[in-house]
Amino acid sequence: MYLSKHQGGNAVSTADHFDPGEAKKWKKDVLEAYLGVTLKRLFATGPDAFEEIYQRLKQFTESLAATEAGNGVTVAQEVPEDAGPQALPQAVLDTVTSLAFAIDAKDHYTQGHSQKVSAYAALIAEAMEMSDAEIDEIRLGAVLHDIGKVGIPEQILNKSGPLNPDEWETMKSHVVFGAKILEPLKPLARIREMVHHHHEYFDGSGYPEALRAEQIPLGARIVAVADAYDTITSDRTYKKGRSAEEALAELERCANAQFDARIVEIFVRVMRQQANPIIEVASLTPSRNS
Fold first, then answer.
1. Long-range contacts: 205-214, Cβ < 8 Å, 24+?
2. Given 3.10.180.10, 1.10.3210.10, 2.40.110.10, 1.10.10.10, which CATH number is that of 16-283?
3. Is 147 in contact with 181 (CB distance < 8 Å)?
4. Which of 13, 49, 241, 255 could hold 264 in an S-S bridge, CB 3.0 to 4.6 Å?
């Protein structure tokens, strides 16, 4: 992208012509262009890929904050940590969701997984009569739940057979990578908690912090149920997908152990009312945050 050409060719911009709004737009365009190219190539996952993308997001958010401050805006007041996704530039949201989809697409068995988990999680949130803003956060948190897999070496991420104990410990670290990569995006604090804790178990036997019951953020408990349902009903290299009824029975069996029983009850009721209880990626239409 040759931005100077679009902005007037050989024209020279002087200090008295400086427009902070234009600077913000330019920085968004640069981030979008750089990470767009990164995600469109066949990148390899692993610690190096994680570090590169993390640093780019960190540099961008720090630079954007500096631009805001230079424009007389008190950044800490304008963008609190609980502000939500709407407080971030769309280019940033597009970048992190594109990254999540690119990770899914590394293996054709998981392609579309995050989109389906997002759709199932939104159904739960709607049935729980959450606000529109809360539903949007649940939807985005589910899209991003596996974003930390960008830090997992490809030979582990795409291994066709069972993982050995050391490989399993490495795989479990994706929730830590996921929380870390979202760290610079302060308005996504609640979503970051969903990503970090979606593998906690209701009885306290999960990871990474062995939280139990209400200690686990509600969004993470919702994503856990949606994630498990899609995994059970989908084909993987190591198994064939099971029927919707079998998956729902498995969720009920694991209620109060792995999952929040109240959320399982709501999800089972909602899914049994659906004409097609297994969502296909082709049936999903892109939305702002998914």
1. 205/257, 206/258, 207/172, 207/175, 208/172, 208/175, 208/176, 213/260
2. 1.10.3210.10
3. yes
4. 255
